[in-house]
Structure formats: C-alpha cells, structure tokens
Amino acid sequence: MEQLEKKTMLGLLLVALILPTFANEYTLHIVILACFYVILSSSWNLLAGYSGQVSFAHVALSSLGAYTSGLLSLKFGIHPVLTILCGAVVAGFFGAIIGALTLRMSGSYLALTTIAFSEIYRIVISLEYEITNGQVGLSVSGLFGESTSKITYYYAAVALVVIIVFIGIQKLVKSDFGLTIRAIREDETAAAAMGAKVVRHKVIVFAISSAIAGLAGAFLAHYTLLVSPQMATITEMGIVISMSVIGGLGTFIGPVLGGISLEIISEYVKEFGNYHLMIFGLILILVMRFAPMGLAGLLFSIPPGKSKEKLAQQIRKEV
Amino acid sequence: MEGLAPMLAQLVNGLIIGSIYGLMALGLTIIFGVLKIVNFSHGEFYMLGAYASYFISQTLGFHPVLGIIVAISATFLIGMLIEKALLPPLFENKVERKEEYALLVTFGLSIFLVNVALAVFGPFQKSAPALTKGNIDLGVISLSSGKVLAAAIAILVLLITLFVIQKTWLGTALRAISQDRDASAIMGINAKRLGSIAFGLGACMAGAAGALLGPVFLVYPIMGTVPAIKSFVIIVLGSMGSIKGAIYGALMVGIVESLGVIFLSPAYRDVYSFLILILVLLLKPKGLFGGAQWNN
Amino acid sequence: MLEVTNVEAGYGKIQILNDLSLSANENKLTLLIGPNGAGKSTLLKTIFGFVKPSKGSIRFQGEEISSIPSHQLTSLGIGFLLQRVSVFPDLTIEENLKLGAWSFKRDTARVAQRIEYMYEKFPILKQKRKESAGLMSGGQKRMLEIARTLMPGPKLILVDEPSAGLSPKIAKEVYRVLHELKDEGITLLMVDQNIRESIAYSDYVYVLERGRVSSESAADEIGKNLKQVVESWLKF
Asked: In this predicted model, what pLDDT tens digit does every residue of A296-307 receive, in sequence order?
C-alpha cells in the first residue's frame, strides 16, 4: 500500500476504535452495517477488480452462507460462531463451482451466467418456504445471545472480522498469487502464455471471495437475527458493485471508501426519501465515464493500473 | 380432450408473449451486432416504453396505439442520447477493458433508471388499458383480442425492422459496421453516428415491447428486469448478433416456458429460461445458430 | 498530390513513425518498401486517420487532412486498400459494391452506372453478385475490394501489400489491375514486399527503415542499388 493509503486506513482504524465511547447505539448499528458492506465490497473487488471476473452471484453466495448458518443453528442448535464458519465454507465451495463452470467465459457471458445463478437461487429460496420460510425469512439466534443491547460486542466482532479480512486480502494481493491474478485481469492470454496457471488462480479467487461473502452474510444474519431473500436481489448486488466501483475497482482502499461514502450518502438522503439508489446509479455512471479509478483514484491519484509491460516484467521474475 | 384446452391456451399464450419478447431480443441483438456490447439496461427501456404508453393512454386518455408510437419514438431518442453520452470511450481507445466498461456503465444506467422511475412514478403497479377489448373465440380456446393485437403489432414492427436492415442503405450500413468497422469507415460510413442510431433502434424495440406488454402485465419500475433476462436468454440461445437466431430463440423460449408451466410448476416459470441460459452458456456458448456474426 | 511532412505517430507509448516526410505525385505510382516493422502500414493508416499523428502534417491537394475523421476521406477522393481481407463477409457481392457508393448513395443513377461499370471490368463479380462475399476465394475477394474502392472514383488510393497471401498467378492479375489504374490516371501510394513486381511499374520509390525515410529515388535509378539495399535489411 502506498503511504497515503496506509495512513488513511490507520486513521479509520483509530476512529473505529474510539467510536463506541461516544457514539449512540444507532450510530454503531449504522457502522456495523457499513462494515458488512465493506467486507462484501472488498471481497467482490478481489474477484472483479483484481482477477477481472465481474460476477453477479456475490450477494447470492453471501445469502447462501447466511441461510446455511441460520438453518444449522436453528435445526441442530449449533452455536452461531461455528455455523458462521460453516456458512463461509459452503459459500466458498459453491463459489469455486461457479468459478470452475465460468472459467472460459468473458465479461458479458460471465455476468449473464452469474445473474442467472443468482436469480435461480433467489427464486428457489423464496418459493421453498417449508425449508426457508419464504419471503418472510427465518428468525435465527444472535451471535451473542438474544438481547440487542450487546451491540458493542457485535461492533467489536465485526471490527475483528474486518481487520482479519483486510489483512488477508492485503497479503493475498501483495503476494505472487496476487500479482498473477492482476495480470489475468489485464490480459488473460498473455498471462497464460507466460506460464501463469490461470485456471487454478481464477477458481481459487472465486472460492476465497465467495467464502468471505458467506462469512459476512452469516454474520449479518446472526446480528439482525433474520435471514431473508432480500439480501440476494440484483438491487443488493448493485449496491455492492456501486461501492466497489465508485470507491475504486482494483484498488485496496476503494471498497472501503465506497462503502463508507455510500453509507453516509444513504443516511442523509433517506431523510428526503428513497433516492439513495438513484444517486448510487448516477455516481456509478459518472465514475465509469469520467473517473474510472473511482474515489481512490481521485484522492490518492492511483494510476489506471500498471502498464502491461511492467506487470509482464514482474511476472517473468516470479514465474 | 378436456385437458387439452388449457394446455393449448397456455401454449398460444406463450407464443404470443414470446413474439413480443422476440421483438425486445431483436433490439438487444442489433445493439450487440453493431456496438459489440451487451446492453444491461435493456429492461429499463422496456419499462420506459411501458410508462410512456401508459401516460398517453391512461393519463391523457388517447388511444393505446398512439401510446405505442410515442413509446417507440421516446425510447429511440433516449437511447440515442445515452449512447452519445456514455459509449464514446469504447471507440476512442481510452478504455482497456471494453467489455467490462460497457457492462458496468449499462448496469449503472439500469440502477439509475429503475430508481428514477421509482421516485417519479412510485412503486405501485399501474394498470394500463388494453389495446382493444373483447375476446376471439376459436372454439377450443378463447384469446383476448388485446393480446392478439399486441402480438400482431409486434410482428409488424419486427417485419418493418427486418426490411430496414435487409433492404435499406441504413440497414446495410449497420450490417457492414457489425462485420468490419474499419472497412466501413473507408466506404465513408460514419460508424459513430450510426452506432448511436443502432442503440436507439435497439432501445426502441425494447420500448415497443414494454408498451405492448404493459396492459398485459401491469406497469411498475422493475417490470423490465425479468424480460431483460429473458431477452438475454433468447440472444444467447440464438447466437448473439444473429437476427434469425433472435426470432427462433424467442419462439423456443416461449414454448419451453409454457411447457414448463404446464408440466412442471407455474411458480418456477422464470427459472426455466434461466436454466436454459446456463445450459447454453455452459454447453454451446455460441448459441444454436453458430458464430457471432450478424447473420441474416 | 499528397504531402506528408515530419510526421510522428504510434500506438500509445510505442512510437512507430519518426519525423517522416514523403510525397506522392499525381498520376504516379509511389512505392514504399522496407523491412518488417519499419512503419509502412502504420504510415498508410496514419494518412487515412486510423492512427492520429502526434506531430507533423498531412496535406492532400493542398488541404490539411490529419484532423479530418477517416470516414470523410472518401468524399475527398482518397481510397484505401487494406492488407487484410476487408470484404463484408455476410453481405453479397452486390451489397459490398453498393456500399462503395455510400458517399453518393442519393444519386441512384450514378450508383447503378458505377456498379455496371465494375461488373464489366470484373466479370467474375457479376457472375457471383448475389453470393456472400465471405465465400469467395482470396483472389476474388481482392478483386471485390479493388472494385469497391473504385466505386466512388478516387483520385488517390493507398494500397497495403496488394498480393499478400495470394498465389503468384492471382497476384499477377491483381498487379495487372492496379497498373491499369495508374494508366487511368489514379495516383497510387503502395506498400509492397513484392519488390520485383511492383518496381517495374513504379515511378518513385521510398525506402522506410525504423519509422523514417532512409533513401528515395526514381524507380529506374534504384534498380542498380536494390540488391544492396535489400541485403542491408537482412542484417537486422
């Protein structure tokens, strides 16, 4: 990470640490939700921004993790801490399958396939109400028991998850593995020609990104005490995409900036009406058209990705 | 003989609605053929067409057919303007990953348009007046005249579009651009301007479909999402960029959906087309009509 | 007729043409030869506007054309025969020819007359007029491309390796047609690796190396030094 990015991250961390001391419950709740979206956006950014696989199945996989965790804890009485991990594993597994099936697909085809998977998932979940309770959703137990006054615990827990996920993604991106997947986004054929094991990398990234999504989804479920098909809609996918792209697709701090700013916009706009999604869409268009590197690009002047030659040089050294 | 009538009705219904989806899919295929992009906001032009027609026929009280004409004109213009505003980076070599750009920009447009509609028109489903009243009694089954007229208009628009594409200078130039953009420029064809026209053309066909199906399915902001996905299925099945494929694909999807509803479960109606999409993309990604060229 | 002065151009960060100047005189066949990568094709693309020059000027009949969009050059009288196959594969031969008349499509009489003229000049095209252009042989496609380029009656034609990928027999036909064009008064600026064939009919020759003109002379004079020049390329 460049210096300025590092400092910003540390600054945010500091703010996050002292927040519970003076913020009220509602603010903490908003921050927890924001963290959820940041985790979801960061993991999607890993998939789409770093390895170039623009998938629309992300929120569906997140929801899958949530339902897995919810159902396991409900039917078998297992503690949410364990079921959340199970949710992550299941989501990661199906993410790997989707990744394997869509290996040879380019942008639009991949998008369409994952939209199809996502919608099939959502429809099945909504209709099979005997298992899932349909549109109404499942009531599940909380991570820290039933009472909601444990919000500081949840806050601490989500903060922990965020930190772990960030460190994980950071290490992944900076490693040889990360270098290779970035090369794949730039030019898949060239990367393969240079010896990169494209298949393995693409599927692994899909699996990891989906597992994180499943983790986030399951966590949210045991925080809000509810699992419903609402999280698996294309609208929600649109929010995740907007956060990542507006923040800066393919950068590390992008999803963080995007998640935080869009949550803030959301909170302010909701006072006037339900216009926040319209604004997200508009900003997304404007960013793509005029500032493709997003907020991260504008604030930290991150150039539009290393030139192919530089990446090629780096890969030749590693491979 | 008793059980056959509702099945037949379902099948005919599927064909009628399929023909209108076919119109929408043709629009998508024209955009893909000329501009080489998948328009992820196609469903929203369908929606805009429906609202335009609703406004003319319900709010202002004119005849629904005027509503359809207005819907087509409005979505054509809006489509052209949007192409000019959003798609130039694709052709100025400013973008490295063109497919990703088109995907994200049209998806963003989709989010924007749906929520503008929500803000302006409200979320409640509105009922648009049918094109005509009454039923056509064919003995075994009875069809609503409105639906039949809608299908007839859709087929008319389809035929007009095919005529334009095959027999006019404009259509031939559009086909040329889709096959060889540089050679077109050498001929003197302004690919940028015709590209805008192509997008407008594609968009207005979605708008026409929306105006035609508004009375059938009710008008509401997210009404375009499922028809858009069905259009995707159709053009993928029929090979992206193939006109013949779009038409046959529409018929196939209409029939498969109806059969699924008859023999399996009506609740899962939309899932059948999604499954077709996945199967085709996994097994025969180039579709059943081979090649991505803009064939006849 | 065509003046290229101090042109620099390339693709992104890769510069191909460096301070290149040459001219193509009216009614003459100007030949461009040089080793691979010298920038010959890039030069033609830059003249036609597919590549934008970062420096320099390109004047056609005295008018600066470097900032004119490519599609407007046909009406000015410039044609371009690309190196690669450029027929519209899923259009018929007749549709391909018709598109050659795009810049004067409103003049239906002239369009019909020009098409008839092409059918006389290239009988094979008339025979296959309703067939898909993509199904023809390489040589036939070339002929179609030439006919199509001639439809608007251009004054200058840029030709990029006319015989590329063709058998010697077909190539000879192509050259015969091109040389006829010269006799009809059309100015040709031609890139060719097939030096022996082209030089016989050329008036002036430029040698391009590494994006600039390394030598130039009238065609009949270069013949003596040709062997040496070509050999010097093989040393790369």
From this structure: 888 877 665 544
